[in-house]
Write a structure and sequence with these properties.
single chain; BirA Bifunctional Protein, domain 2; SH3 type barrels; about 30% helix; globular
């Protein structure tokens, strides 16, 4: 199957044709999505699109390969958390990227900005970012509408690939109670229907633009763009574990490397990775 410039490759018996709304929107977006979607594999249900994309990347999949699904049975977020992926309610896909080494450290932040750009272009909403990879709307409080999970593979000291997984809660869905307490959807917050295809295409366009910006111009614009969407979280309390000790402070900024800058009683500290728990 070929839709515009969209190549669809089914590598497993369980894969299906790309849903019409997504395929048409990607085709209409054309060059704005760059190489993203140069090949697409789609599933009615899969364990995790990231797992499928990682397997493809390890077999030499070209940059831009997109793995999507109507639902995931084992979708995940950071630190092994489950990403609830009910059928037909959201947009769940992963992208194979092969960034130069200088771009890899800020790729998660660049993808977050790109996803926020895309959601805004598709819906008019203005997503905010919460370090390092959650998106929410002002109306949703701390409940997220989207998230990103980047997982990389290396060859020696060289970054071989980064798989960027994207989950966007598009439509209203019945969620487990613990998930509903920390997640919402675009349609719930906006009070109107949202096109999944438009969100898919605009998110891909946003990621591609920010990815090219990161590669060609370095991280300064990415950090500035992330900061402008993440400023609402600055001034909030955070806690994290370091060496078996729980540390606490106030989030103040992100630095040029993308680390979260936290004010503590001992002075300013940078958190580069790991789990940060946000407190009121």
């Amino acid at each position: 199957m070929k839709v515009g410039g969209l190549g669809v490759t089914n590598l497993r018996p369980s894969s299906i044709e790309v849903p019409e709304d997504v395929a048409e929107a990607l085709a209409v977006a054309g060059d704005r999505v760059g190489r993203l979607g140069c090949r697409v594999t789609w599933f009615a249900e899969v364990g995790s699109t990231n797992d499928e994309a990682i397997a493809l990347a390890n077999r030499g999949a070209e940059e831009g390969w997109l793995v999507g699904a109507d639902s995931q049975s084992s979708g995940r977020g950071r630190h092994g958390r489950t990403w609830s992926s009910p059928p037909g309610a959201g947009l769940y896909f992963s992208l194979v990227l092969r960034p130069p080494s200088h771009a890899a450290p800020l790729l998660t932040l660049a993808a977050g900005v790109g996803v926020a750009d895309g959601i805004q272009a598709a819906t008019g909403a203005e997503p905010r970012l919460k370090w390092p990879n959650d998106l929410y709307l002002v109306s949703s409080g701390s409940r997220k509408v989207a998230g990103i999970l980047a997982e990389g593979g290396t060859s020696g000291t060289r970054v071989d690939y980064v798989v960027v997984g994207v989950g966007v809660n598009v439509r209203k869905a019945i969620l487990p109670a613990d998930v509903a307490a920390r997640a919402t959807s675009l349609e719930d917050e906006l009070g109107r229907p949202v096109s999944r295809g438009a969100v898919a295409a605009e998110v891909c366009a946003g990621i591609w633009r920010r990815y090219q910006e990161l590669i060609g111009e370095g991280g300064q614009k990415i950090v500035a763009a992330w900061r402008s969407r993440g400023v609402g979280t600055f001034g909030r309390g955070v806690e994290w574990d370091a060496g078996g000790v729980t540390c606490r402070g106030i989030a103040r900024d992100i630095d040029a490397s993308g680390a979260l800058v936290i004010e503590t009683e001992q002075g300013l500290m940078q958190v580069v990775a790991g789990e940060v728990r946000w407190t009121p």
